[in-house]
Protein backbone atom coordinates (compact mmCIF):
# COMPACT_ATOMS: atom_id res chain seq x y z
CA UNK A 1 0.00 0.00 0.00
CA UNK A 2 1.00 3.64 -0.29
CA UNK A 3 0.28 5.95 2.57
CA UNK A 4 -3.06 7.32 3.72
CA UNK A 5 -3.03 10.99 4.69
CA UNK A 6 -4.97 11.99 7.79
CA UNK A 7 -5.54 15.61 8.87
CA UNK A 8 -3.40 16.91 11.75
CA UNK A 9 -3.24 20.26 13.53
CA UNK A 10 0.11 21.49 12.15
CA UNK A 11 0.99 18.81 9.57
CA UNK A 12 -0.87 15.98 7.86
CA UNK A 13 -0.31 12.51 9.32
CA UNK A 14 1.03 10.16 6.64
CA UNK A 15 0.10 6.58 7.58
CA UNK A 16 1.47 3.37 6.12
CA UNK A 17 -1.10 1.62 8.29
CA UNK A 18 -4.87 1.25 8.12
CA UNK A 19 -6.17 4.04 10.38
CA UNK A 20 -9.20 1.92 11.28
CA UNK A 21 -6.90 -0.82 12.62
CA UNK A 22 -4.86 1.53 14.86
CA UNK A 23 -5.94 1.66 18.50
CA UNK A 24 -7.67 4.86 19.60
CA UNK A 25 -5.02 5.73 22.18
CA UNK A 26 -2.28 5.53 19.52
CA UNK A 27 -4.30 7.69 17.10
CA UNK A 28 -4.69 10.29 19.86
CA UNK A 29 -0.92 10.28 20.41
CA UNK A 30 -0.37 10.90 16.69
CA UNK A 31 -2.81 13.82 16.80
CA UNK A 32 -1.00 15.16 19.87
CA UNK A 33 2.38 15.04 18.11
CA UNK A 34 0.89 16.88 15.13
CA UNK A 35 0.13 19.86 17.42
CA UNK A 36 3.78 20.51 18.33
CA UNK A 37 4.82 24.02 17.18
CA UNK A 38 8.16 22.79 15.81
CA UNK A 39 6.84 19.85 13.74
CA UNK A 40 7.44 19.74 9.98
CA UNK A 41 6.28 16.20 9.23
CA UNK A 42 4.92 12.98 10.73
CA UNK A 43 5.09 9.53 9.12
CA UNK A 44 3.48 6.47 10.67
CA UNK A 45 4.79 2.97 10.06
CA UNK A 46 2.64 -0.19 9.70
CA UNK A 47 3.86 -1.52 13.07
CA UNK A 48 2.49 1.55 14.90
CA UNK A 49 1.21 1.08 18.46
CA UNK A 50 0.72 3.00 21.68
CA UNK A 51 3.87 4.21 23.44
CA UNK A 52 4.89 6.78 26.04
CA UNK A 53 4.20 10.26 24.70
CA UNK A 54 4.73 9.30 21.06
CA UNK A 55 3.67 6.03 19.44
CA UNK A 56 6.13 3.30 18.67
CA UNK A 57 6.38 3.18 14.87
CA UNK A 58 6.44 6.92 14.19
CA UNK A 59 8.88 9.23 12.43
CA UNK A 60 8.77 12.82 13.69
CA UNK A 61 10.57 15.54 11.75
CA UNK A 62 11.05 18.82 13.64
CA UNK A 63 12.97 22.00 12.99
CA UNK A 64 15.09 23.30 15.84
CA UNK A 65 13.63 20.94 18.42
CA UNK A 66 13.77 17.34 19.60
CA UNK A 67 11.47 15.42 21.94
CA UNK A 68 13.40 12.98 24.19
CA UNK A 69 10.30 10.86 24.97
CA UNK A 70 9.81 10.47 21.20
CA UNK A 71 13.21 8.78 21.07
CA UNK A 72 12.27 6.55 23.99
CA UNK A 73 14.27 5.33 26.96
CA UNK A 74 16.23 2.69 25.03
CA UNK A 75 18.30 5.20 23.07
CA UNK A 76 19.91 3.65 20.00
CA UNK A 77 18.04 0.36 20.26
CA UNK A 78 18.35 -1.52 16.99
CA UNK A 79 19.29 -4.63 15.07
CA UNK A 80 22.36 -6.36 13.66
CA UNK A 81 22.51 -9.32 11.29
CA UNK A 82 25.26 -11.33 9.59
CA UNK A 83 24.97 -13.95 6.86
CA UNK A 84 27.34 -16.89 7.36
CA UNK A 85 28.82 -19.53 5.08
CA UNK A 86 27.04 -22.22 7.12
CA UNK A 87 23.96 -23.91 5.72
CA UNK A 88 21.00 -25.60 7.32
CA UNK A 89 22.79 -28.93 6.69
CA UNK A 90 25.55 -27.88 9.10
CA UNK A 91 23.10 -27.49 11.98
CA UNK A 92 22.72 -30.36 14.48
CA UNK A 93 19.31 -31.92 15.09
CA UNK A 94 19.41 -30.78 18.71
CA UNK A 95 20.10 -27.07 19.02
CA UNK A 96 19.91 -26.87 22.82
CA UNK A 97 23.70 -26.97 23.21
CA UNK A 98 24.15 -24.07 20.79
CA UNK A 99 21.53 -22.01 22.65
CA UNK A 100 23.24 -22.80 25.96
CA UNK A 101 26.65 -21.72 24.64
CA UNK A 102 25.19 -18.43 23.40
CA UNK A 103 23.59 -17.79 26.80
CA UNK A 104 26.94 -18.49 28.49
CA UNK A 105 28.77 -16.02 26.22
CA UNK A 106 26.20 -13.18 26.26
CA UNK A 107 24.60 -12.18 29.59
CA UNK A 108 20.83 -11.70 29.32
CA UNK A 109 18.15 -9.97 31.40
CA UNK A 110 19.72 -7.75 34.03
CA UNK A 111 22.95 -9.71 33.82
CA UNK A 112 26.32 -8.23 32.99
CA UNK A 113 29.87 -9.44 32.37
CA UNK A 114 31.99 -10.15 35.45
CA UNK A 115 34.70 -8.00 33.88
CA UNK A 116 34.34 -5.47 31.10
CA UNK A 117 34.85 -7.05 27.67
CA UNK A 118 38.22 -6.19 26.13
CA UNK A 119 37.43 -5.58 22.43
CA UNK A 120 41.11 -6.10 21.60
CA UNK A 121 40.60 -9.80 22.34
CA UNK A 122 37.63 -10.13 20.01
CA UNK A 123 38.26 -11.62 16.58
CA UNK A 124 38.34 -8.82 13.98
CA UNK A 125 36.63 -6.23 16.18
CA UNK A 126 37.38 -2.65 14.99
CA UNK A 127 38.91 -1.01 18.08
CA UNK A 128 39.72 2.36 16.52
CA UNK A 129 37.56 4.95 18.24
CA UNK A 130 36.96 2.77 21.32
CA UNK A 131 39.15 4.82 23.68
CA UNK A 132 37.74 8.07 22.35
CA UNK A 133 34.21 6.83 22.89
CA UNK A 134 34.85 5.99 26.54
CA UNK A 135 36.80 9.24 26.95
CA UNK A 136 33.62 11.12 26.04
CA UNK A 137 31.81 9.53 29.01
CA UNK A 138 33.36 12.37 31.02
CA UNK A 139 31.12 14.79 29.09
CA UNK A 140 27.75 13.11 29.79
CA UNK A 141 25.34 14.19 32.55
CA UNK A 142 26.79 14.11 36.06
CA UNK A 143 23.59 12.32 37.16
CA UNK A 144 24.79 9.05 35.58
CA UNK A 145 28.54 9.27 36.29
CA UNK A 146 28.22 6.84 39.21
CA UNK A 147 27.06 4.20 36.70
CA UNK A 148 30.44 4.06 34.93
CA UNK A 149 31.40 0.58 36.15
CA UNK A 150 27.97 -0.83 35.40
CA UNK A 151 28.02 0.71 31.92
CA UNK A 152 31.36 -0.93 31.10
CA UNK A 153 30.21 -4.34 32.38
CA UNK A 154 26.86 -4.16 30.56
CA UNK A 155 28.59 -3.43 27.27
CA UNK A 156 28.05 -6.59 25.21
CA UNK A 157 24.89 -7.74 27.02
CA UNK A 158 21.37 -8.36 25.78
CA UNK A 159 18.87 -7.00 28.31
CA UNK A 160 15.27 -8.19 28.50
CA UNK A 161 11.85 -7.44 27.01
CA UNK A 162 11.78 -7.87 23.24
CA UNK A 163 15.58 -8.05 22.92
CA UNK A 164 16.94 -11.28 21.48
CA UNK A 165 19.83 -13.18 19.93
CA UNK A 166 18.88 -15.56 17.11
CA UNK A 167 20.31 -18.10 14.75
CA UNK A 168 18.18 -18.11 11.59
CA UNK A 169 18.04 -19.75 8.18
CA UNK A 170 16.93 -18.06 4.97
CA UNK A 171 14.94 -19.49 2.08
CA UNK A 172 18.18 -20.51 0.34
CA UNK A 173 19.27 -22.53 3.38
CA UNK A 174 21.98 -20.10 4.54
CA UNK A 175 22.48 -19.58 8.27
CA UNK A 176 22.27 -16.04 9.66
CA UNK A 177 23.10 -14.55 13.05
CA UNK A 178 20.83 -11.78 14.28
CA UNK A 179 20.40 -9.75 17.45
CA UNK A 180 18.34 -6.91 18.88
CA UNK A 181 19.43 -4.64 21.73
CA UNK A 182 20.21 -1.06 22.68
CA UNK A 183 21.98 1.17 25.17
CA UNK A 184 21.11 -0.88 28.26
CA UNK A 185 20.68 0.81 31.65
CA UNK A 186 22.97 3.76 30.93
CA UNK A 187 20.82 4.81 27.96
CA UNK A 188 17.65 4.46 30.03
CA UNK A 189 19.01 6.60 32.86
CA UNK A 190 20.26 9.30 30.48
CA UNK A 191 16.86 9.38 28.75
CA UNK A 192 14.92 9.62 32.00
CA UNK A 193 17.26 12.35 33.28
CA UNK A 194 16.71 14.53 30.20
CA UNK A 195 12.97 13.86 29.95
CA UNK A 196 12.67 15.13 33.52
CA UNK A 197 14.57 18.31 32.64
CA UNK A 198 12.51 18.92 29.48
CA UNK A 199 9.20 18.63 31.32
CA UNK A 200 10.14 21.52 33.62
CA UNK A 201 11.08 23.99 30.87
CA UNK A 202 8.69 26.97 30.48
CA UNK A 203 8.07 26.51 26.75
CA UNK A 204 6.65 23.00 27.42
CA UNK A 205 4.02 23.98 29.96
CA UNK A 206 1.18 24.41 27.46
CA UNK A 207 1.62 21.13 25.58
CA UNK A 208 -1.30 18.71 25.27
CA UNK A 209 0.85 15.93 26.75
CA UNK A 210 3.74 16.60 29.15
CA UNK A 211 5.52 13.53 27.72
CA UNK A 212 5.97 15.48 24.47
CA UNK A 213 8.25 18.04 26.16
CA UNK A 214 11.02 19.17 23.81
CA UNK A 215 14.41 20.79 23.87
CA UNK A 216 14.86 23.70 21.48
CA UNK A 217 17.89 24.76 19.47
CA UNK A 218 20.54 27.11 20.83
CA UNK A 219 19.87 26.30 24.49
CA UNK A 220 22.24 24.64 26.97
CA UNK A 221 19.63 21.96 27.67
CA UNK A 222 19.46 21.01 23.98
CA UNK A 223 23.25 20.93 23.72
CA UNK A 224 23.51 18.68 26.77
CA UNK A 225 20.80 16.32 25.52
CA UNK A 226 22.28 16.02 22.04
CA UNK A 227 25.70 15.29 23.50
CA UNK A 228 24.31 12.51 25.72
CA UNK A 229 21.91 11.23 23.05
CA UNK A 230 24.64 10.75 20.45
CA UNK A 231 26.94 9.15 23.02
CA UNK A 232 24.19 6.67 24.01
CA UNK A 233 23.48 5.90 20.35
CA UNK A 234 27.16 5.07 19.94
CA UNK A 235 27.04 2.91 23.09
CA UNK A 236 24.14 0.96 21.58
CA UNK A 237 26.00 0.38 18.31
CA UNK A 238 29.11 -0.82 20.17
CA UNK A 239 26.94 -3.02 22.39
CA UNK A 240 25.53 -4.83 19.35
CA UNK A 241 28.95 -5.09 17.70
CA UNK A 242 30.49 -6.71 20.77
CA UNK A 243 27.59 -9.13 21.15
CA UNK A 244 27.89 -10.07 17.50
CA UNK A 245 31.63 -10.68 17.94
CA UNK A 246 30.90 -12.90 20.97
CA UNK A 247 28.21 -14.72 19.00
CA UNK A 248 30.60 -15.32 16.08
CA UNK A 249 33.14 -16.78 18.50
CA UNK A 250 30.54 -19.25 19.77
CA UNK A 251 29.70 -20.25 16.20
CA UNK A 252 33.38 -20.65 15.27
CA UNK A 253 33.90 -23.04 18.20
CA UNK A 254 30.69 -25.00 17.72
CA UNK A 255 31.17 -25.41 13.97
CA UNK A 256 34.95 -25.74 13.91
CA UNK A 257 34.95 -28.32 11.12
CA UNK A 258 32.83 -26.17 8.82
CA UNK A 259 35.18 -23.17 9.28
CA UNK A 260 32.41 -20.55 9.08
CA UNK A 261 32.97 -17.32 7.20
CA UNK A 262 30.94 -14.21 8.03
CA UNK A 263 29.70 -11.59 5.59
CA UNK A 264 29.79 -7.87 6.51
CA UNK A 265 27.45 -6.90 9.32
CA UNK A 266 24.15 -5.17 8.62
CA UNK A 267 23.23 -2.85 11.49
CA UNK A 268 20.52 -0.25 12.05
CA UNK A 269 19.18 1.84 14.92
CA UNK A 270 15.43 2.09 15.33
CA UNK A 271 15.15 4.45 18.35
CA UNK A 272 17.25 7.48 17.50
CA UNK A 273 17.66 11.01 16.17
CA UNK A 274 19.44 12.02 12.96
CA UNK A 275 20.06 15.36 11.27
CA UNK A 276 18.60 15.15 7.76
CA UNK A 277 17.48 17.54 5.04
CA UNK A 278 14.06 17.51 3.40
CA UNK A 279 12.32 20.10 1.19
CA UNK A 280 15.19 22.52 1.71
CA UNK A 281 14.99 22.32 5.51
CA UNK A 282 17.55 20.98 7.98
CA UNK A 283 15.48 18.80 10.30
CA UNK A 284 15.98 16.65 13.36
CA UNK A 285 14.32 13.36 12.45
CA UNK A 286 13.32 11.14 15.36
CA UNK A 287 12.62 7.51 14.58
CA UNK A 288 10.90 5.71 17.43
CA UNK A 289 10.38 2.14 16.34
CA UNK A 290 11.43 2.90 12.76
CA UNK A 291 14.55 2.33 10.67
CA UNK A 292 16.19 4.53 8.08
CA UNK A 293 15.40 3.21 4.59
CA UNK A 294 17.32 5.50 2.26
CA UNK A 295 17.79 4.31 -1.31
CA UNK A 296 19.94 1.15 -1.30
CA UNK A 297 20.43 1.11 2.49
CA UNK A 298 20.11 -2.29 4.14
CA UNK A 299 17.76 -2.70 7.06
CA UNK A 300 16.37 -5.40 9.33
CA UNK A 301 12.68 -5.86 10.16
CA UNK A 302 12.19 -8.67 12.67
CA UNK A 303 8.96 -10.49 13.42
CA UNK A 304 8.15 -12.18 16.71
CA UNK A 305 10.09 -15.09 18.21
CA UNK A 306 8.22 -17.75 16.23
CA UNK A 307 7.47 -16.12 12.89
CA UNK A 308 10.66 -14.99 11.16
CA UNK A 309 12.25 -11.73 10.01
CA UNK A 310 13.21 -9.80 6.88
CA UNK A 311 16.39 -8.26 5.54
CA UNK A 312 15.34 -5.31 3.38
CA UNK A 313 16.81 -2.63 1.18
CA UNK A 314 15.45 0.92 1.37
CA UNK A 315 13.74 2.53 -1.62
CA UNK A 316 14.41 6.10 -0.46
CA UNK A 317 10.83 7.36 -0.11
CA UNK A 318 10.96 11.01 1.01
CA UNK A 319 7.29 10.91 1.98
CA UNK A 320 8.24 8.63 4.89
CA UNK A 321 11.42 10.62 5.55
CA UNK A 322 13.33 7.62 4.13
CA UNK A 323 11.97 5.35 6.85
CA UNK A 324 10.36 1.95 7.33
CA UNK A 325 8.99 -0.13 10.19
CA UNK A 326 11.27 -1.59 12.86
CA UNK A 327 9.40 -4.87 13.33
CA UNK A 328 5.98 -6.46 13.46
CA UNK A 329 4.71 -4.18 16.22
CA UNK A 330 2.67 -5.26 19.23
CA UNK A 331 -1.07 -5.70 18.85
CA UNK A 332 -1.60 -6.05 22.59
CA UNK A 333 0.21 -4.92 25.72
CA UNK A 334 2.48 -7.19 27.72
CA UNK A 335 -0.08 -7.46 30.52
CA UNK A 336 -2.85 -8.28 28.06
CA UNK A 337 -0.67 -11.01 26.51
CA UNK A 338 0.01 -12.53 29.95
CA UNK A 339 -3.73 -12.59 30.69
CA UNK A 340 -4.66 -14.09 27.34
CA UNK A 341 -1.95 -16.67 26.66
CA UNK A 342 -0.49 -19.64 28.54
CA UNK A 343 2.84 -21.44 28.39
CA UNK A 344 1.05 -24.15 26.35
CA UNK A 345 0.12 -21.49 23.78
CA UNK A 346 3.75 -20.35 23.76
CA UNK A 347 4.98 -23.91 23.14
CA UNK A 348 2.58 -24.29 20.22
CA UNK A 349 3.40 -20.94 18.63
CA UNK A 350 7.18 -21.47 18.91
CA UNK A 351 7.23 -25.09 17.78
CA UNK A 352 10.46 -25.82 15.92
CA UNK A 353 12.35 -22.96 17.61
CA UNK A 354 14.93 -23.72 20.32
CA UNK A 355 13.98 -21.06 22.88
CA UNK A 356 12.56 -20.38 26.32
CA UNK A 357 8.98 -21.57 26.64
CA UNK A 358 8.29 -20.55 30.24
CA UNK A 359 5.91 -18.03 31.83
CA UNK A 360 8.66 -15.39 31.94
CA UNK A 361 8.42 -14.82 28.18
CA UNK A 362 4.70 -15.38 27.54
CA UNK A 363 4.38 -11.61 26.92
CA UNK A 364 6.68 -12.12 23.89
CA UNK A 365 4.45 -14.80 22.34
CA UNK A 366 3.95 -14.39 18.56
CA UNK A 367 0.21 -13.94 19.10
CA UNK A 368 0.89 -10.64 20.90
CA UNK A 369 2.38 -9.19 17.69
CA UNK A 370 0.99 -8.17 14.32
CA UNK A 371 1.60 -10.61 11.42
CA UNK A 372 5.01 -9.69 10.02
CA UNK A 373 4.01 -10.55 6.43
CA UNK A 374 1.17 -8.03 6.59
CA UNK A 375 3.49 -5.37 7.98
CA UNK A 376 5.98 -5.94 5.15
CA UNK A 377 3.19 -5.84 2.56
CA UNK A 378 2.03 -2.43 3.82
CA UNK A 379 5.40 -0.83 3.07
CA UNK A 380 6.23 -2.12 -0.41
CA UNK A 381 6.90 1.48 -1.47
CA UNK A 382 9.40 1.93 1.37
CA UNK A 383 11.56 -1.22 1.20
CA UNK A 384 12.33 -4.20 -1.04
CA UNK A 385 12.77 -7.62 0.55
CA UNK A 386 16.29 -9.03 0.20
CA UNK A 387 15.95 -12.15 2.35
CA UNK A 388 13.33 -13.82 4.51
CA UNK A 389 14.68 -15.49 7.65
CA UNK A 390 13.21 -18.04 10.04
CA UNK A 391 14.73 -18.42 13.49
CA UNK A 392 15.82 -21.85 14.70
CA UNK A 393 17.40 -20.61 17.96
CA UNK A 394 16.06 -17.63 19.93
CA UNK A 395 17.70 -16.40 23.13
CA UNK A 396 15.57 -14.06 25.25
CA UNK A 397 16.38 -12.05 28.38
Please tell me about this protein's structure:
The longest helix has 35 residues. The chain has 397 residues and is α+β, with helices and mostly antiparallel strands. It is globular and about 60 Å long. Strands 6, 7, 8, 10, 14, 15, 17 and 18 form an eight-stranded mixed sheet that branches. A six-stranded mixed sheet has the order 1-2-3-4-12-11, covered by helices on one side. It has a two-stranded antiparallel ribbon with strand order 5-9. 27% of the residues lie in helices and 27% in strands. A hairpin with a 2-residue loop joins β11 and β12. The chain starts with a strand and ends with a strand. It contains ten helices and 18 strands. α3 crosses α7 and α6 packs antiparallel against α7. Its EC number is 6.5.1.8. It holds the Pfam family RtcB. This is 3'-phosphate/5'-hydroxy nucleic acid ligase.
Distance between the termini: 35 Å
- State the helicity in percent bands: 25-40%
Radius of gyration based on Cα positions = 20 Å
Number of helices: 10
Largest sheet: 8 strands, mixed
Question: What characteristics describe this protein?
Answer:
397 residues; 8-stranded mixed beta sheet
Task: Briefly characterize the structure.
This protein is of the alpha+beta class and 397 residues long. It has 10 helices and 18 strands. The strands form 4 sheets. Strands 6, 7, 8, 10, 14, 15, 17 and 18 form an 8-stranded mixed β-sheet that branches. A 6-stranded mixed β-sheet has the order 1-2-3-4-12-11, covered by helices on one side.
Amino acid sequence: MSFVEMPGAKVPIRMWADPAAVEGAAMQQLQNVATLPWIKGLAVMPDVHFGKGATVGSVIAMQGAVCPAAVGVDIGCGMSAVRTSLTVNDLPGDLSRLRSKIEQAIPVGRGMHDDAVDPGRLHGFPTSGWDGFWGRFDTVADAVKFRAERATKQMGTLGSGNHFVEVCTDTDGAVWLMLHSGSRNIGKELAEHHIGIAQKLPHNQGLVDRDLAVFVADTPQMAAYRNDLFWAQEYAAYNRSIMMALLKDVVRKEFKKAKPVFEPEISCHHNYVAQERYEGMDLLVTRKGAIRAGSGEFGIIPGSMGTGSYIVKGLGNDRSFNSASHGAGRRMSRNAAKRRFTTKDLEEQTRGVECRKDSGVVDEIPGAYKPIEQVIDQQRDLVAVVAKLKQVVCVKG
